Amino acid sequence: MxxxxxxxxxxxxxxxxxxxxxxxALPDSLGRAGCDCTLVVPAYREVFEKNLPIQKxxxxxxxxxxxxxxxxxxxxxxxxxxxxxxxxVGNKHCFDRDTLYGGAEDYTDNAERFIFFSRAVMELAxxxxxxxxxxxxxxxxxxxxxxxxxxxxxxxxxxSEARSILTIHNVGYQGMFWHWDMLxxxxxxxxxxxxxLEFYGQLNMLKxxxxxxxxxxxxxxxxxxxxxxxxxxxxxxxxxxERASDLTGIxxxxxxxxxxxxxxxxxxxxxxxxxxxxGKYAARVALAARLGxxxxxxxxxxxxxxxxxxxxxxxxxxxLLHRMAGSGMARFVVLGAGDPQFQESLKIVSSQYxxxxxxxxxxxxxxxxxxxxxxxxxxxxxxxxxxxxxxxYAFRYGTIPIVRATGGLVDTVVxxxxxxxxxxxxxxxxxxxxxxxxxxxxxxxAIDAHRNTKLWQELIRCVMQxxxxxxxxxxxxxxxxxxxLANAPVDVVDVR
Length: 496
Ligand code: ADP
Ligand code: GLC
Hints:
Blueprint lengths: L1 E5 L11 H15 L3 E7 L11 E12 L2 E10 L7 E6 L1 H4 L14 H17 L7 E5 L5 H8 L11 E6 L7 E3 L3 H4 L12 E2 L2 E3 H8 L2 E4 L2 H6 L10 H6 L4 E3 L26 H15 L10 E8 L5 H11 L6 E8 L1 H13 L4 E5 L3 H10 L2 E4 L9 H7 L3 E5 L2 H6 L5 H5 L6 E3 L4 H16 L1 H12 L5 H17 L10
Parallel strand pairs: 1-2, 1-6, 2-5, 6-7, 7-11, 11-12, 13-14, 13-16, 14-15, 16-17, 17-18
Antiparallel strand pairs: 3-4, 4-5, 8-10, 9-10
Helix pairs in contact: 1-18, 3-4, 4-6, 9-12, 10-11, 10-16
The structure holds adenosine-5'-diphosphate (ADP) and alpha-D-glucopyranose (GLC).
């Protein structure tokens, strides 16, 4: 099966969050399962700064974007030990910038940038010698791809039989732009209607993907249910309900080569179940040094690593710090970047309790690994969480997560109870209400459990043994691909 994966970010090229981890690992895993997989990502400025074996190809073409045409310069990259091809689509105007999507504010021309990228991917796919069976796109940035395939590129021999798949990683980000951006897409205005590209007067790219893709997936079964109702669907619940029979929830896997305490290049002492105490202690020492402390202290270390967005429950974390940092019961470390107000509040609380809190603002892959290894407990009090990868990394590093019962966290973390401890399935502390007091209660329960050395060691053993590698999930994606190929393509409805 020939599969084209299309993503706006993928490790090791460019990353702002879990999408990159997924798009970076899934193609390789599909390749191992026998698919002939090609990944296409934008050639952002930062991809050229990473010492990757990127080469310019002789493929270059013009892409119509509204009244302009933008040149696409195509690069390729052969990653060592990976069995899929990678193309990078370059255009200086669109991608030679400091960040992927903008800073505190999104770039004002993001519609144009990702319309260009999505259409360039179609032009690139159309120029390949062999047809693709599956075109798999991810999130709003590439959600116009199924619409392009059905509305403008259907007659190209290499694309005519392909089926399109959309994976929704987060329905909270829909790529909504003012209606005049329709002119940039090249689509006929007749598609700007409430059943296709329009959403309350705006162009909605994610909606386009949901309507035109042949199959839709999202990143956990619980999230697949949540997005079919308010508030989880963020307004798209009706459109998603209409596609319910083509919507599947598949939990993400993790890249077990990159996130592996037995071989992680970013931690000082490699470890497995048998020497987990030594490995975590060495990481604690290294983390203390990195944060400017003479030595680690004895208190349990609670960590938060993630985007500083309301979705991640950052307001609860800040509240928790105010409630508990003075108690002397624990030490906290926060690594994150995002909402300037959260950044500011975190700096303020850490300056109030320097003996209990470290806050690092920024995106730091190395520190993320070190914190996962050093911490005892990972905080993920998300308001909603489509899948979440940080809790799966935590398992592998013997770090016990505290999570709110939402989305993929429900599907991946089993609450500690007498029953689950007895049957060896317990893997974390799960709380329900999105309230500071509930999080605090879960944290106190976890700190109590941490004092019980036997129980804690058993928990660590339990989580470190779990297998969240991509193989199982990649097989599920293959089933979705087969289903898409077995069905007729989704009809383009003529809405009058
Ligand atoms: P999301 O995709 O919603 O941000 P996930 O849990 O799926 O959440 O994935 C987050 C990924 O981004 C993880 O690999 C995590 O380690 C990484 N990450 C998030 N914030 C930072 C940061 N400030 N520095 C380094 N890595 C980060
Ligand atoms: C999104 C979600 C996160 C998920 C990630 C990868 O960013 O917020 O829950 O793990 O995508 O699928």
